[in-house]
Design a protein that fits this description.
Layout: E1 2-3, E2 10-11, E3 19-21, E4 28-30, E5 39-41, E6 46-48, E7 56-58, E8 62-64, E9 71-73, E10 80-82, E11 89-91, E12 98-100, E13 107-109, E14 118-120, E15 125-127, E16 135-137, E17 141-143, E18 150-152, E19 167-169, E20 176-178, E21 185-187, E22 194-196, E23 203-205, E24 212-214, E25 221-223, E26 230-232, E27 239-241, E28 248-250, E29 257-259, E30 266-268, E31 275-277, E32 284-286, E33 296-298, E34 305-310, E35 313-322, E36 329-336, E37 340-342, E38 350-353, E39 356-359, E40 368-371, E41 375-378, E42 381-387, H1 389-394, E43 401-403, E44 417-419, E45 424-428, H2 430-436, E46 440-444, E47 454-456, E48 462-468, E49 474-477, E50 480-483, H3 489-493, H4 497-506, E51 522-523, H5 526-533
Parallel strand pairs: 1-3, 2-4, 3-7, 4-8, 5-9, 8-10, 9-11, 10-12, 11-13, 12-16, 13-17, 14-18, 17-19, 18-20, 19-21, 20-22, 21-23, 22-24, 23-25, 24-26, 25-27, 26-28, 27-29, 28-30, 29-31, 30-32, 31-33, 32-36, 33-37, 46-51
Antiparallel strand pairs: 5-6, 14-15, 34-35, 35-36, 38-39, 40-41, 42-48, 43-44, 43-47, 45-46, 49-50
Length: 535
Amino acid sequence: SLFAGAGDDILIGGEGADWLDGGTGHDTAYYLTSVAGVAVNLSTGRGTGGDAQGDTLAGIENLIGSAFSDVLTGDAGANVLLGGADDDTLAGGAGADILFGGTGLDTADYSTSSSGVSVNLNLGSALYGDAQGDVLSGVDGLIGSAYSDTLVGFDHQGLSGDVFTNVFYGNAGHDSLDGLGGNDQLYGGDDGDTVIGGSGNDLLHGDAGGDVLSGGGDSDTVHGDGGNDSLSGDAGADSLFGGDGNDVLYGGTGNDDLTGGAGADALLGGDDRDTFHGGSAGDVVEGGEGGYDWDKLDLTGTGPIRILYDPANPENGTVQFLDPVDRHIIDTMTFRNIEHVIPCFTPGIMILTDRGDVAVERLRVGDCIWTLDHGWQELRWIGQHELSVADLVAQPCLRPVCIAAGALGAGVPERNMLVSPQHRMLVTGGRADMLFGVPEVLVAAIHLTGLQGVTQIIPAGVTYIHLLFDQHELIRADGTWTESFQPSERMLDHMEIAQRKEITTLFPNLSLSNGNFPAARLTLKAYEALVLLAD
């Protein structure tokens, strides 16, 4: 037991459960020699951990922590709390306190304040509630009260050297958090908060409530979380996540990633190359047109969808969300100024395999595909060719043909199909037999555009996928029969060198000039197709 009496004393209890009584004056309990972190509370007069384990304190106004992670709590008077090295938590309580964090990521905790606080780490000063009159130095993090707080960081290098210069938790109440300079981590907490990252690569969370979040300069990650939030990335390459609720996301300048999440969200990319992920009912996506513009809508994982492009402007359109069973429209979202749309489950390109229907983009070499003439056949090669909207505008002959569900007969195809203009579909019936002497013929999709529901369109980019077997085959795609890839000299001439080399390596005996890869059915010319399809 140590009894200091009058004067300003320093008490060092060391190991063991000590009684430290400072008496009168401004006295300090010293734990710098502890080999482990301590937790000391002057309000309760108790200590735990390291040299503080079992300590009882009375008449002590100040605390000096260890070189490890400490929790130092003051009382209602004016306290001096020195954290020292490592990551410390300092809670001064009521009274005008001096909080010195030292090195490490140190936090001033005002969670027990009975009213809101205002703390500015850049100035090292504080107002209101338990923060009234406090002086802070070497403090990197702040924990606000359950009321409306204002927490401001600093615009210079902190003492911690950590990745995140400031770490703030607003807790409940309508809080205002501003990280200023550095790489900050800011959490608004409950209720509607205003969270500003400032310069640096910041991480912002609105948490519950309708929050307003602004990343500021550099590359920020901004989460709205719960509630109807407003998120802005501002400058830099930012990642924005709306979370739950009806959110507004604005990327600003730079190449941004925007994910709306649940709810009917408005996503605005701003300038430069932005990527929009997913989508849900009621979403509105605006790519923007400024800067180095090439915006992308990635619908991977959204389930069965149908994409309808605006004929007057292929960068605009509507995404229809479909019921996975009967494919009726459940809801929609819209997009504008999007140069490229990436669908995942593309209605109309589901191929019948030994594993059931598989989206064409998910097929792999070696998969067994059901063919009309030869049963199960192994897929030998898959190729693809991507075309931008500029390519399609410049080369009308490459624009895809959309075959609407039921356009070729009752339930044929089962859903909308998007195919290349020269992709051939199997047409059957007595009229073909009467005109051409065979009951089944192949007709290029472009020659079917005279039928209701078959139109050539200009989407915002398209990827053509080629499936090659040991011979030209007819395969099942969404309830209709269509052709596999049939190589020809003309087709190979238009392929990339690597693709052509791959095909000729797989099929070394392929002789296109003397008919070793013949068509599976008679192929109609344009005028023949016109006669066949005439009313």
